[in-house]
Amino acid sequence: MDAEQLREYGHKMVDFIADYYKTIENYPVLSQVEPGYLRNLLPDSAPNQPDSFQHVLDDIQTKILPGVTHWQSPNYFAYYPSNSSVAGFVGEMLSAGLNIVGFSWITSPAATELEMIVLDWLGKMLKLPEDFLSAGQGGGVIQGTASEAVLVVLLAARDKILRGVGKGALEKLVVYASDQTHSALQKACQIAGIYPENFKVLKANASTNYGLSPELLSETISKDLAHGLIPFFLCANVGTTSSTAVDPLLALGKIAKSNGMWFHVDAAYAGSACVCPEFRHYIDGVEEADSFNMNAHKWFLTNFDCSALWIKDRSALVQALSTNPEFLKNKASQANLVVDYKDWQIPLGRRFRSLKLWMVLRLYGLENLQCYIRNHIKLAKHFENLVAEDPRFEVVTPRLFSLICFRLLPPPNNERYCNELNHELLDAVNSTGKVFISHTVLSDKYILRFAIGAPLTEEKHVNAAWEVLQDKATALLGESLR
Ligand code: PLP
């Protein structure tokens, strides 16, 4: 690592990235390349001799960027956002620069201690119960993704119950969630050895706005108990991936508690909004939870990856995930004076991820972050109104945050073509390269998702996207009438 070369390349790369952001709207939002495009553009093997930095930058411009989908484009409205910001970026840069591997406190005390402090800060911003903060038996940890977060708490919960009922009972352990829950939970169950038939996916429908019904949960648990099964884990959602549905946390949490189950809350996307007092009620009932997760990398200006997980009983995680090999032993860990985050996650190694979240919190402050969320929600209301004003479209589920679920209605007597029509509309819109939106299916209806949350998005981008949608709808409806 030559410091002067770092300075030279680093300045050039920052210039390159700044120029990228200045011209980001010139690129098609959704990459338009064909599968395998890059094989034809790059040599078969790595060079024997070093290439020049400028040559590499040129290749990035001409060969790599065409194959990039521009998540930071103001015209990106697909899936959920993945935020980038100056603060998040420079934090990420510092993390790469220091390049520590902070698995135990001793490997970089600042990495562990800053992570504990920053997650306490964020926990307080979200008004999480004190039990989730590091002063007591709980605390926060940064995982890479919500998938890792739900996996580690599932493992903690599994081992905790098995310590009570005996290891042989694994085949009886039951996990519950609504059918709107992210597939990350299914994957976690597969990894944790939960028997597939014991992963109970409970149907949620339009009558509860796709929230999980406490009555259905209670009934299912009672039946399972009667069959000698052991209910042990419930995952609830605040902001589902399809439609931002919110499960009734308080009622569900009480059922989980009365049955001795672990209660996890997945607020990967919508958790960010809860730093605003007017949206905090969406996580009312979180006091019943054993663990709570939100992705700061989705909608909180923190560059990927930064998934914040809080847990009330950190010893449950540590008991499930700790190992203590000779080569990692050290005085601070042996004396139990410190947190060693290696015992709160799957891998050993870990990056200094708290730096970027710390930078975001310090350089923007709570008030700006609240304004940021509110602005996207205002834009989402605006888009919702645009859709509602055009009788050819309908808003399908109530908008709670900054996602609008809507669809194009078919011409009279053509209802059965509705799904096909919306699929075609999605493809037509995305192939323009002017916007990128995604879809879902709810109650057998093919639905378009318009998720506002890219940091550069302004009202003019929302209006332009709506124009593209309207134009393509006009063309499609014209064709279908012919
Ligand atoms: N949970 C919800 C509600 C999500 O929306 C997502 C992804 O969008 C996930 C979990 C999985 O996220 P990750 O990629 O962080 O594992």
UniProtKB/TrEMBL annotation:
<dbReference type="Pfam" id="PF00282">
    <property type="entry name" value="Pyridoxal_deC"/>
</dbReference>
<keyword id="KW-0456">Lyase</keyword>
<dbReference type="GO" id="GO:0006587">
    <property type="term" value="P:serotonin biosynthetic process from tryptophan"/>
</dbReference>
<dbReference type="InterPro" id="IPR015421">
    <property type="entry name" value="PyrdxlP-dep_Trfase_major"/>
</dbReference>
<dbReference type="InterPro" id="IPR021115">
    <property type="entry name" value="Pyridoxal-P_BS"/>
</dbReference>
<dbReference type="GO" id="GO:0030170">
    <property type="term" value="F:pyridoxal phosphate binding"/>
</dbReference>
<comment type="similarity">
    <text>Belongs to the group II decarboxylase family.</text>
</comment>
<dbReference type="GO" id="GO:0005737">
    <property type="term" value="C:cytoplasm"/>
</dbReference>
<dbReference type="InterPro" id="IPR002129">
    <property type="entry name" value="PyrdxlP-dep_de-COase"/>
</dbReference>
<keyword id="KW-0210">Decarboxylase</keyword>
<keyword id="KW-0663">Pyridoxal phosphate</keyword>
<protein>
    <submittedName>
        <fullName>Pyridoxal phosphate-dependent decarboxylase</fullName>
    </submittedName>
</protein>
<dbReference type="InterPro" id="IPR015424">
    <property type="entry name" value="PyrdxlP-dep_Trfase"/>
</dbReference>
<dbReference type="InterPro" id="IPR010977">
    <property type="entry name" value="Aromatic_deC"/>
</dbReference>
<dbReference type="InterPro" id="IPR015422">
    <property type="entry name" value="PyrdxlP-dep_Trfase_small"/>
</dbReference>
<dbReference type="GO" id="GO:0036469">
    <property type="term" value="F:L-tryptophan decarboxylase activity"/>
</dbReference>
<feature type="modified residue" description="N6-(pyridoxal phosphate)lysine">
    <location>
        <position position="298"/>
    </location>
</feature>
